[in-house]
Amino acid sequence: MILVTAPTVACSQPTPASQSQAAQSAPARWTAEFPLTDFGKSTIPFSEITEGGPPKDGIRSIDEPRFGPAAGPYPLRLGTKEPVISFSYGGEARAYPLRILIRHEIVNDVIAGRPIAVTYCPLCDSAVVFDRRFDGQVLDFGTTGKLRHSDMVMYDRQSETWWQQFVGGGLVGKYAGRELTVLPARVESLEIFRQRFPRGQILLPADAGARLYQNPYENYDSRDRPLPFFTGDLPQDIEPMARVVAVGDKAWSLRALSRRGRIEDGNLVLTWQAGQNSAVDQRDISKGRDIGNVVVQRKSEGKLVDVPYDVTFAFAFFALRPKGRIIDE
Description:
By secondary structure, the chain is mainly beta. It is 10% helix and 35% strand.
């Protein structure tokens, strides 16, 4: 068994607001872009933030999502093994294709009366669903165009607080040091979603051009290290681009899980089955290599219930979960 322990890196995971950084000045372009952000409150050094290229909302979130029947015709040629983020609540189930999320990264949605944010950071291959209800209001999220440890930095349009997508923690602004609620969701093939939810809905493209919905990170997960956006330490005992299944501060390598098919750890049960394309391999996601489907559940009162998890790259977990450990056996 190989245990990979993340380094003790100050503030890799947002710290409470009482531990805010010493006074630091935000670049003028930040204050111009984000006039509502309280840059006097932060849990990280501003030096950890890098420019991803696009400006604020340059990667356009989907704020008025439209859906169609998942079992019906679709405007794009989705392969049956293409990955979707699936979320079910209140008798409704929706699939959000990564082919769409890879371009928009955030969907602000309401399902059965529950406001949610469906998020995807392709540089970390991280898919996380949050409850948008926070502090007595409903937040709407957009992209800052900034990155931290190669992970998307989101912002809410109500306070313009900056949030780390990977952990849902407030980085800069009014809610620095606070955390969003992460909701159980799965990343699974479209085929499996249709089997589980025959009457489920699927997110429709926000733009008409099919060419817009292709993977711009061709062969990304075949690299030996992340793109230069990432400037932190890399794990030494597992390949940085190896996928891991993360549950809080603990993760298991995807290769170990795929080899065994099932891992039990206390009351956690992790299972794997083949039949899901990588979203960041081939330009046409339907032709991406098979990385399989993961389900993580907890034993509770004689049943198995879904828990929040993330299938992501080892470098991201290593950097953003500084107290975490990766099990590779």
